[in-house]
Amino acid sequence: MINEKKQIIADLIKIDGVTNQEIYQALEIPADKKMGDFSLPCFRFSKLLRKAPMIIAQDIAQSIKTLTYPVTSVAALNGYVNFLTDKLYTTKKVLKEIEEKGSSYGDSKEGEGKTVCIDYSSINIAKPFHIGHLSTTVIGGCLYRVYKKLGYKCVGINHLGDWGTQFGKLIVAFKLWCSEEELNREGMKVLTAIYVKFHDESEKDPSLEDQARLWFKKIEDGDAEALRLFNLFKEITLKEVDKTYKRLKISFDSYAGESFYNDKMEPVLAELEKEGLLEISEGAKVVNLEKYDMPPCLLVKNDGATLYATRDLAAAFYRKNTYDFYKCLYVVAYQQNLHFRQWFKVIELMGMDWAKSLSHVAFGMVSLEDGAMSTRRGKVVLLEDVLNKAVEKSLAIISEKNPNLDNKEAVAEKVGVGAVIFSTMYNNRIKDTVFSYDKVLNFDGETGPYVQYTNARTISLLSKAGKYDIKSVDYSGLDNEESHAVIALLEKFPSIITDAAEKYEPCYIGRFLVDLCREFNRFYLANRIIGEPDAVKSARLILVDAVHKVIEEGLSLMGISSPEKM
Length: 566
Ligand code: ARG
Fold this sequence. Notes:
binds arginine, 21 helices, alpha/beta, three-stranded antiparallel beta sheet, four-stranded parallel beta sheet
């Protein structure tokens, strides 16, 4: 996306041997606002021009005889050429654009005709939806909305973990200790419980493991009874997680999980064989990746069983053929780095030029106080429990701060769930984080509730102040440092979205929203609205409304609701 002011400035600058585009790219927005709105560092040209940066900067500044509006001044300082622009121009332009576009401010057409597949959440059937799946779910959902905003067609895929020997174990456990009636009544809880029980019991009675293997074989062979139970477990799991997905505003276009690829691996393996890429190693089929400093990619075990990687390979081909994706993203924890590097490499070795459009969007761990978790021992932190607790605590805070608020429960749901989502995406993806309820629910911190609260403030201001008149506006009411700071951020919003998409970093949006709220609150403290002359009041209300619109759109991209009052 071309920045209009930056382009006007780039057009003013002529340097022998440097293209207009290079100049455009070299222009920076200085951290110190006093330096100007844009600044050209001249160090990078000294080799080419055989001159000191200070001299180059002076030469450039002197060469610009007439300025193009909205540029108002140019000056050389310490090897930089600094440019100032008319603030009023930006103020009017940005506010007008947000007023007109509303929630579509920041939309673009860059993705037109392109499809992005996003593999996220990808939970495991019959296992609890625990906090380990929180990041992939909300980051994936956010990237989905962000790409959509940029005009891409998105395909959200829940690559269900619905394959593996554990399903044999579950059938054995189910037959021994459970009934369909109980399963339908109790749901997931009982599935987890019998799975844990299986592990305890099989330590005492190893024959259980043999039975489990037999049942798994039956699933593989398409035995009716085995498949029926397997599908029942799947149904129960999906029905239950759906509640959590709704709370998180997450949806999918496809639930094609691992089992979907049962009959789609053979052609891929045949192709690998044909290309001479498959090696037999101790009876197993592998792709040797020694040259690339990686252990071999194991695709078929010596007993003929296929693996997680085999299914991922088949899935990639399937997705390429079905969706002809421009990009295929895998939002999966960094623990699986090697897995993705390995099979991405296999696709590349098969000569597929689209190998480079596969990306592993890795993220760090979220842990609560007591750290690691294991399904086998049943010691997991359920996502639902985390959400419930956050909502409960929000309700307590809201009841204290605003006892007369209507619909407190509904607001607490939005605030509590929003707080969890916001905090999950507030840091760079790759960082491990420790989750603390008090921290994520702090209404004055860098949190979801702080952003929601600021938004509620904009709404209340707009409703108290009444209608503003867009025709008689005195923009000098916004000619002050606090207003300029808010406008500068509003102007940046579209580029925040493109950056978030390009780097797969939802945290850019959360950080931006906190900055915007901070600057807005500073503006609000320093600039009176009600009681000012109408034209000034109107100008300030237009700004309030623009902030309101951008906050709501930012939160909505993250999957967070914006309560009107809280
Ligand atoms: N089900 C896996 C897990 O929970 C994640 C699957 C990620 N997606 C993929 N295509 N491998 O660890």
